[in-house]
Amino acid sequence: MLKNKKTYIKIDEKIKSLTPTEKFVQVIDRTFSKDLFVGLGIVVKRMIFFKREKHTLDYPNEKYEMSTRYRALHKLMRLLDSGQNSCISCGLCEKICIADCIRIETKKSEDGRKEMLDYSINLNRCIYCGFCAEVCPELAIVHGQDYENASEQRIHYTDKTTLLTPLDEFLDGKQIEFTGYGSPSIDADDKIKKTPLSY
Amino acid sequence: MDIGFLIAISLKCLVIIAVFAGIGGYITVIERKILAFMQRRLGPMNMGPYGMLQIIPDMIKLLTKEDVVPAGAIKPIFKIAPVISVIATFTALSAIPLLPEFTIFGITVSPIIADINIGILFVLAVGSTAMYGPLLAGISSNNKWSLIGGARAVSQMISFEVIAALSLLAPIMMIGSLSLIDINNYQVGGIQNWLIFTQPIAFILFMIAIFAETNRTPFDLIEFEAEIVSGYATEYSGLRWGIFFVAEYAAMIIASFLVSIIFLGGFNSLWIIPGGVMILLKVAFLIFLFLWTRAAWPHIRPDQLMEFCWKILMPLAILNILITGFILIL
């Protein structure tokens, strides 16, 4: 229900009919208007304040910083404390994938746990919907911010060896932690409290 | 006519052609940079400091590109059209006093190739024969865009030749001479003597006319990309296209020189600024104006252009001549 109908602005009512004198003045005004020179002024202002107004990047030298929610190529993360693959091979991402492009091969290892043999994403089919990253209980599969995907073959991006952070890189502390949706906040350490022992 | 005179003239010709072809090419880079800044972009950035040496890869590209002559084109005419264009443009340059006389190594040099007493007439007449370039290119290319571009070039240039000549008639009546040096000397002694203040209407009309004759933006129907691809130059590639380009930009420089000599005080010194620097400053500003309007203004339709020319500008020009004549008589 509209309580106040006056909020509508009727454009037709705003246009007043002009008298011939007013029309003549309007024509003269528009013919000799300063519009062309206003245009010149605007353009030269863009040039003088170029440093402030610049809208483009000097691309290969400067790069755009993507949002943490940007969904670029997938990454498999390692656990920070142990360096093990975070993936527990639960298979949720494989099941939720609407493009049916994720495949996990697992086996039962000697210690009785599930062990991941291979994790592959078929980038021919992937639509980058982000469901796999959202459903992952361990933040193991995430979307990175790396948008420069040029390569000779798609395989360069799609199997476990490339998705997972290389171990030596991880040991150097070069794994870029995922800070997007679902990740612990930056001040998570301060928020941790001791578990009350007595209920 | 002794041999020393001939050598001096040929040297002058060589220097002027080399310098103007170079500047004409270099304005393309400056145009790209200025347009980019005005549109909040960076423009060419990789060659030299701030992309200022972009002309080198451009030249290499133009020189090494294949020279395609389309099937069905009239070959000799197609090949000679850009040459006609550039020769006419540079010939027009010969009657323009570029700088004041100066002395170097004890020799007094007057930087004008031919000091003829009908300077303006010569420049306008020879400059307008450059129209044959677009016309012949359009006819011989065997391409509808080229043909339309050529037809537009002819109609536009003929129309605006009238405006240019009529608008210049009033200042010429005041000065009583067609020589560009006489016109320059008429404006000696400070800004208040510049002809722009006594002939403002003629100045505006002449500016509009040269914008149309050099095919710059408000009147760039001849090669407007959105309508007729590239106009008369559609089928050209490589060096021939480059020659057309050089001719076009050289025409821009000539127009700037004409305006600054006839209306803006020419190469007379002002306050402490010497005359040579003065005219270069004015020419640089006028060329900047050409680029500036290209970034800011839309262009108009061919029929609007013709209407504008014959129904508004020509009556104004004739009125200006009449009023000037009456004032001179009284």
Short structural description:
The complex is a heterodimer of chains A (199) and B (330). Chain A is an alpha+beta fold and 199 residues long. Chain A folds into two domains: 20-49, no CATH class; 74-183, 2-Layer Sandwich (Alpha-Beta Plaits), CATH 3.30.70.
Which terms would index this structure?
heterodimer; A: 199 residues; alpha+beta; Alpha-Beta Plaits; 2 domains; two-stranded antiparallel sheet; elongated; B: 330 residues; mainly alpha; two-stranded antiparallel ribbon
Report on this model:
The complex is a heterodimer of chains A (about 200) and B (about 325). With about 200 residues, chain A is an alpha+beta fold. Chain A is built from ten helices and four strands, in the order H-H-H-H-E-H-E-E-H-E-H-H-H-H. Chain A is elongated. Chain B contains 13 helices and two strands, in the order H-H-H-E-E-H-H-H-H-H-H-H-H-H-H. In chain B, strands 1-2 form a two-stranded antiparallel sheet. The N and C termini of chain B lie far apart (about 45 Å). The model of chain B has no long low-confidence stretch (mean pLDDT about 85). The interface of A and B includes residues 42, 46 and 55 of A. Chain B: One of its GO terms (cellular component) is plasma membrane. Chain B: It is a multi-pass membrane protein.
Estimate the global geometry of chain B from the Cα principal axes.
globular
Terminus-to-terminus distance of chain A? 52 Å
Read across the widest sheet of chain A, the strand sequence of neighbours is 1-4
Number of domains of chain A: 2
Largest sheet of chain B: 2 strands, antiparallel
Helix-strand sequence of chain A: HHHHEHEEHEHHHH
**Count of distinct strands of chain A:** 4
CATH architecture of the largest domain in chain A: 2-Layer Sandwich
Largest sheet of chain A: 2 strands, antiparallel
Low-confidence stretches of chain A: none
Whole-number mean pLDDT of chain B: 85
The radius of gyration of chain B is: 20 Å
Topology order of chain B in helix (H) and strand (E) letters? HHHEEHHHHHHHHHH
Q: How many discrete domains of chain B?
A: 1
